[in-house]
Amino acid sequence: MAISRFWHAFADTFKIRTDKPELVRAQVNALSRQIPVLYMLLLANAVALAYTHYGVAPDWMTVYAVFVLAVICVVRGVTWHRARFDIDDIDACIKRLRRIRVLAFLIAVIFTLWAITMFGYGDPFQRGHVAYFISITVVGCIFCLVNFPPAALLVVAIVLGTFVLFFGFSGNEVYVAIAVNMALVSLMIVQIIRSFYANFAGLIQTQNDLEKQHDAMIDLSRQNEALALIDPLTGLSNRRAFFSILEDTVNAARETDRFAVAMIDLDGFKPVNDVHGHPSGDELLQQAGERLRKILGSETLLARLGGDEFGVLLKGYDDSLALLELGNRLCDELNRPFVLGGVTVQVSASLGFASFPTVARSPIGLFERADFALYHAKKNARGEAVLFAAHHETLIRHDSQIEQALRKADLADELSLHYQPVFDIRSRHVNSVEALARWDSVFMGRVSPATFFPVAEKTGQVGVLTRVLFEKLLIDMESWPHQVPVSFNLSARDIVLSDTVEWLIDEIKRHKIDPGRLTFEVTETAFLRDFEAARTSIRYLREHGARIAMDDFGIGYSSLRYVHELEFDVLKVDRSFIAPLPVNERSRRIVKTVIDMCQNLGIDCVLEGIETDRQRDALTALGGHLMQGYFFARPSRDVKFEALAGSLKN
Question: Could you tell me the pTM of the whole model?
């Protein structure tokens, strides 16, 4: 059994390991450097042996045979030295190893026969040289072929095996001793070959494993890098990828190149998220991405930039009409109803374009102008596409001027409050007054609140305005009759910051104002920004006695939900419903519904924007009684409470 295992192991050593391609390649690579040395070694030893036997042995053995051998060794050695092997071709490598094994067999047989024949000539010294020739040649061949055991062991078996038998049966004690010595050395050499080969094969395997690990790490790194550029929710490119590709595109662009950047925003996504839950919101974004991709195609860069905002890089577009046509197609596609978990929801989409090089030549310039076009679309053409144009550049510059003027302004001196009363036409009393901001800029003159507040909110300056104006309001209220209620507008940014609402209450206490006299007006934009934070702030204000009003009611997406969950004290109906009231039956029905809802909920309903007696009479007929507008009084810096004393609400 042990002998069988040894024999199989020994026989396996003569095989070419075709099952290990990396080992085969390493063997061919090593032999390509070592075989030329082998040929030179054979030639040198053969010439030396022929020289010592010249004149003793026949010429065909010492001259002609050596000459032929020299030609063969030189040609083969030079061929191997200059050869360039394609070690990636595993089949070619295996064929080359097989040829080496055959050549090793032939060379071993030829040299053995030549040496044995040469042994028959000469004196004991010359015969000793033959034995030395055999030993040194075999050792040299083994070192040259040690990386390829099938060839190395063939040489050992043929050369040493033959001479062990030859010397062993010679009958000469010295030769017998040499045979025994050769046999023992042969066994040691075989073990050395196997040991070296095992280490060599193990080293190649280790290198192969390390290369695989390295390749795996590189693949993992590439996968991570790819994932870092993909939005995990939609599978689209993400913000990082979008700006990277946009920057590369701009840097590589020539004067004749034309392309456009588009910004797309879903109008009404936040309410869907709040009402139906985040899974539905995620599904909405996924479906929106699929719809956009279907129109844009796979070659166009489409990225989710964050939230419900998408970015598009459109190459080859230089026609304004073509851009707007594509933009409106995208908006129309997103305006179609979405089915989310069996529930149908409706949102819309607005889009802004900026083109290269017409409106900007830098990545940030293109992005900012596309974003401004989107902002303009949401404000003035919701649900449509807007292409950034020259007049938008004027608006940007104007906004930039306002921003700079706000930063340089002495706000405490330049800001002021005007007050407009809200009348209760049933009792013919003033119900309350609303504080309205005014800014008389040193640099720009009188600036409308509708202009400077959006800029202040966008640039993060609105909190400073709120604090300055609220301080002014509290100072004014200290000198007013204690029963006068006042409403004050908070921005969307104010209402989601806990430190701002805490500061408001602290200031009310410091000025010793009754919180019940104050109503804070907020718009639905605040809830779209951060519903939970807005709800927390509203609860905090109400818990400290202040009242809360929803301003511009009716123009949002899910106002009824907010009314239900946030328990407002006042709803202010937007003026857009009031203007057509006398001639529009639909408007009358909507306003009537809101008035009845407020009555049923026990909250006040203030109707804004009354400018004619016809509007007043129509609202009165619908049951409205809290009204505000130019028809009754314009905002004024000085409130004549003496003139109104008889009509103030007790």
Answer: 0.58
